[in-house]
From TrEMBL:
Annotated localization: Membrane
Bilayer topology term: Multi-pass membrane protein
One Pfam family in the UniProt entry: Na_Ca_ex
Top-rank lineage group of the source organism: Bacteria
InterPro entries listed in its UniProt record: Alkaline_pH_Ca-Antiporter, NaCa_Exmemb
Signal peptide feature range: none
Protein name as annotated: Sodium-potassium/proton antiporter ChaA
Sequence intervals crossing the membrane: 16-32, 38-60, 72-94
Protein keywords: Membrane, Transmembrane, Transmembrane helix
Main location: membrane
Amino acid sequence: MTHACEAVKTRHKETSLIFPVLALVVLFLWGSSQSLPVVIGINILALIGILSSAFSVVRHADVLAHRLGEPYGSLILSLSVVILEVSLISALMATGDAAPTLMRDTLYSIIMIV
Protein backbone atom coordinates (compact mmCIF):
# COMPACT_ATOMS: atom_id res chain seq x y z
CA MET A 1 0.00 0.00 0.00
CA THR A 2 2.89 2.36 0.61
CA HIS A 3 4.11 1.82 -2.95
CA ALA A 4 1.09 3.64 -4.38
CA CYS A 5 1.90 6.81 -2.42
CA GLU A 6 5.54 7.01 -3.49
CA ALA A 7 6.35 9.77 -5.94
CA VAL A 8 8.30 8.96 -9.06
CA LYS A 9 11.58 10.84 -9.32
CA THR A 10 12.07 12.37 -12.73
CA ARG A 11 14.78 14.89 -11.84
CA HIS A 12 18.46 14.05 -11.70
CA LYS A 13 20.84 15.68 -9.30
CA GLU A 14 23.38 17.83 -11.10
CA THR A 15 26.54 16.60 -9.44
CA SER A 16 28.55 16.98 -12.64
CA LEU A 17 29.01 20.69 -11.92
CA ILE A 18 31.01 20.04 -8.75
CA PHE A 19 34.30 19.09 -10.41
CA PRO A 20 34.50 21.92 -12.99
CA VAL A 21 33.74 24.53 -10.33
CA LEU A 22 36.25 22.92 -7.97
CA ALA A 23 38.85 22.89 -10.76
CA LEU A 24 38.27 26.60 -11.41
CA VAL A 25 38.66 27.44 -7.72
CA VAL A 26 41.87 25.39 -7.45
CA LEU A 27 43.18 26.93 -10.68
CA PHE A 28 42.42 30.43 -9.40
CA LEU A 29 44.13 29.80 -6.06
CA TRP A 30 47.14 27.74 -7.15
CA GLY A 31 47.29 28.28 -10.92
CA SER A 32 50.59 30.14 -10.87
CA SER A 33 52.35 27.40 -8.91
CA GLN A 34 55.25 25.59 -10.57
CA SER A 35 55.04 22.59 -8.25
CA LEU A 36 54.56 19.30 -10.09
CA PRO A 37 51.99 17.82 -7.64
CA VAL A 38 49.88 20.98 -7.90
CA VAL A 39 49.98 20.92 -11.71
CA ILE A 40 49.09 17.22 -11.76
CA GLY A 41 46.22 17.82 -9.31
CA ILE A 42 44.83 20.68 -11.41
CA ASN A 43 45.02 18.55 -14.55
CA ILE A 44 43.31 15.60 -12.86
CA LEU A 45 40.52 17.85 -11.57
CA ALA A 46 40.11 19.38 -15.03
CA LEU A 47 40.00 15.92 -16.65
CA ILE A 48 37.36 14.69 -14.22
CA GLY A 49 35.37 17.90 -14.75
CA ILE A 50 35.46 17.62 -18.53
CA LEU A 51 34.48 13.94 -18.49
CA SER A 52 31.65 14.43 -16.00
CA SER A 53 30.32 17.37 -18.02
CA ALA A 54 30.51 15.41 -21.28
CA PHE A 55 28.66 12.45 -19.80
CA SER A 56 26.07 14.81 -18.33
CA VAL A 57 25.47 16.38 -21.75
CA VAL A 58 24.99 12.96 -23.31
CA ARG A 59 22.64 11.90 -20.49
CA HIS A 60 20.49 15.02 -20.91
CA ALA A 61 20.41 14.59 -24.68
CA ASP A 62 19.35 10.97 -24.24
CA VAL A 63 16.52 11.95 -21.87
CA LEU A 64 15.31 14.58 -24.36
CA ALA A 65 15.57 12.08 -27.20
CA HIS A 66 13.34 9.63 -25.36
CA ARG A 67 10.80 12.33 -24.51
CA LEU A 68 10.57 13.84 -27.99
CA GLY A 69 10.45 10.65 -30.00
CA GLU A 70 12.21 9.37 -33.08
CA PRO A 71 12.81 12.15 -35.58
CA TYR A 72 13.65 14.88 -33.06
CA GLY A 73 15.45 12.60 -30.63
CA SER A 74 17.98 11.50 -33.23
CA LEU A 75 18.59 15.12 -34.19
CA ILE A 76 19.18 16.13 -30.58
CA LEU A 77 21.65 13.28 -30.01
CA SER A 78 23.51 14.14 -33.22
CA LEU A 79 23.59 17.82 -32.35
CA SER A 80 24.95 17.12 -28.86
CA VAL A 81 27.79 15.07 -30.32
CA VAL A 82 28.61 17.79 -32.84
CA ILE A 83 28.62 20.45 -30.12
CA LEU A 84 30.98 18.33 -28.00
CA GLU A 85 33.32 17.87 -30.96
CA VAL A 86 33.28 21.55 -31.89
CA SER A 87 33.93 22.67 -28.32
CA LEU A 88 36.90 20.34 -27.88
CA ILE A 89 38.37 21.15 -31.29
CA SER A 90 37.98 24.89 -30.72
CA ALA A 91 39.67 24.53 -27.33
CA LEU A 92 42.58 22.83 -29.08
CA MET A 93 42.72 25.50 -31.77
CA ALA A 94 42.74 28.27 -29.16
CA THR A 95 46.06 27.04 -27.77
CA GLY A 96 47.83 27.91 -31.03
CA ASP A 97 49.90 24.73 -31.25
CA ALA A 98 49.55 22.70 -34.43
CA ALA A 99 49.20 19.10 -33.26
CA PRO A 100 47.38 16.83 -35.73
CA THR A 101 47.87 13.84 -33.43
CA LEU A 102 46.15 15.67 -30.59
CA MET A 103 43.26 16.60 -32.89
CA ARG A 104 42.87 12.97 -33.98
CA ASP A 105 42.94 11.75 -30.39
CA THR A 106 40.31 14.34 -29.45
CA LEU A 107 37.95 13.08 -32.14
CA TYR A 108 38.48 9.48 -31.05
CA SER A 109 37.80 10.39 -27.43
CA ILE A 110 34.49 11.99 -28.40
CA ILE A 111 33.54 8.84 -30.29
CA MET A 112 34.43 6.73 -27.25
CA ILE A 113 32.44 8.96 -24.86
CA VAL A 114 29.32 8.80 -26.98
